[in-house]
Amino acid sequence: MGSRSLKDNIDATDKINxxxxxxxxxxxxxxxxxxxxxxxxxxxxxxxxxxxCARVEFVNGGKGQLAIALNTLTIETEQVIGIQxxxxxxxxxxxxxVKNLFLTDxxxxxxxxxxxxxxxxxxxxxxxxxxxxxxxxxNVLIExxxxxxxxxxxxxxxxxxxxxxxxxxxxLSEITNCKIFVRRQELVNKLNNRSANKxxxxxxxxxxxxxxxxxxxxxxxxxxGHDTTALFALIAGxxxxxxxxxxxxxxxxxxxxxSTTKLYAEINSxxxxxxxxxxxxxx
Length: 283
Hints:
Elements: H1 12-23, E1 32-36, H2 39-45, E2 54-58, H3 63-76, E3 80-84, E4 101-103, H4 109-114, H5 117-126, H6 133-157, E5 173-176, E6 179-182, H7 184-193, H8 204-213, H9 219-222, H10 225-236, H11 242-252, H12 255-258, H13 262-274
Parallel strand pairs: 1-2, 1-3, 3-4
Antiparallel strand pairs: 5-6
Helix pairs in contact: 1-3, 5-11, 6-10
């Protein structure tokens, strides 16, 4: 990760002012703004929109700041939409009451990208794992699901467990015959130890009981894309870093795939209703 830039500190208030200034200017009056959660989202989504009439920008501070920006701006203009990772909303059959906010098809955009076999096969071929691709994919989803259940439990119970920056290769997993296994107790211990301000200490029993009460094989909606790609990168070994793996994943996800998603269909429906043509057309 590089040093934080000034852009990383732009929260809802700053972005609201940016949009207002743009829409009131001679050059920006016709621009539609697509607000997203982070810098990587800008890299993914920018290539799917017509840059002559749409601009993809992120609002720092996560979902709360994105919602604040949308709730404020959609009162003033139709020329703003937002794209947000669904996280556990699909599993919980919940929705958000935020105008012009669209959710990813699955847990997040990374899991949406991974749902396409063609996209997966691109990097499996790159890292010479194509012959064993389905077994590797199934293994990674199962192991990632345990991490996801901790995230879900943490969210529902407001535990205050700190995940950011955790590396699953630091004695938290082992790899045998192209299969990765998360060391569950060690992971729980690590998360507890690095969460100084936690409101509840995790136990393996807590998580296993939560899994028993919330069983699902819907791994695409359960698993977190950052965790899943991290495990894939660990299996690939010294061939690639996690950052590089994610870059390859983004490059493999093209307009052809994106155009078949529910997210694309919903934005397309919005643009037909409003008269704004912002999505690139599939050749």
